[in-house]
Amino acid sequence: MRVEFKEYIGEKQNQVIIDYLTLTVHQVQVLDLLEIFCKFIENQEIIPSNFTLYEYGTLKGYDTSYRFLGENIINFNFSTKLPERMGVNINISGQGLKLINLNNLIEFVNHLESENIKYNCTRLDLAFDDFNNTIPKQEIIEDLEQYVLLGIGQQNNTNCLTRIKNTSIQFYSGAFNKIQYKNVTFGSRKGTFFARMYDKRAEQQYTNIDYYERFELELRQDRAQYVLLKLMQKQELSILFVELLCSGIKFINADKYQGKERDVKKVGLKSYFQQFLEEVSKIKYEYKKIKYQIKQTTEYFLKKVNYVYNQLGTLLSAIHQTNSKVLPSILSECRKKALNHDKYSYYIKNCKKELIIQNPFIT
Asked: What is the CA radius of gyration of the chain?
């Protein structure tokens, strides 16, 4: 089985979505939690039997996982060595969240709450998708560049009101389909707030549209838990996006600044930033029917098999001395595991380790 995504962008409607979610749940066995989770999800394909067991986790610290259709989109990670301490980690990517109704997720978390099951949201990404030039990208980048150039001690003279270190701000440029772009990231992935503003059209290699920007907030720990609790209280995603963005950074009228403490109420927000926040706040989340297809395809498995052989071919070309009797068994095992859609990349790594033992010159 595979998940085949046909993303619907024809309407080009601006939206705020959850693009990544990680929950850690304690006091429940992984299979019991998986069954509870599936009961709350209305997508009929998301059932326990469609989750494949893997002998490794998708996140650090977890050695085993159940993955939806064998894909890294909806994962239930757990530790066989420290089950009580680590709990069960539910990790859902942006693609996985597109298969799930947000109301279903909220109902699931409400159930955990009602049953007094200990849980914690460790990461939650909020993303604003822009199809009509709502994001004042150029103005934000110019103010961030000024903030970076002035350095520590002079940042009161900039339009940026933030605790983010100027050294954590990164710019990168490129071009796709003859359209130039400049992206920016700011904040720290080790902290609770990290943001990126980038050309989604270029990232996804869309050739049928000329403009598709994303402003994404990667929230962790307290900030992530806060958003989840607010969603349980029926708060709009757009309002939460605005609130959490402003908790990390604001763009103010620095030329009106006087004194040691900058008061936003006195100097006011930059007009471009104020207008942006107002436009985002107007967006209402729409619970639409899933517009993605899940289907079985033998071609997908064949691609995995070809990948295995290509990787082994690269290894074999680097071998100077090896035991030829070992290679057929390795090839046979890789083919068998790939056809069964069972951690094929894991076997590639094991094969490489085995061959390195035989020949230390392989890298």
From this structure: 24
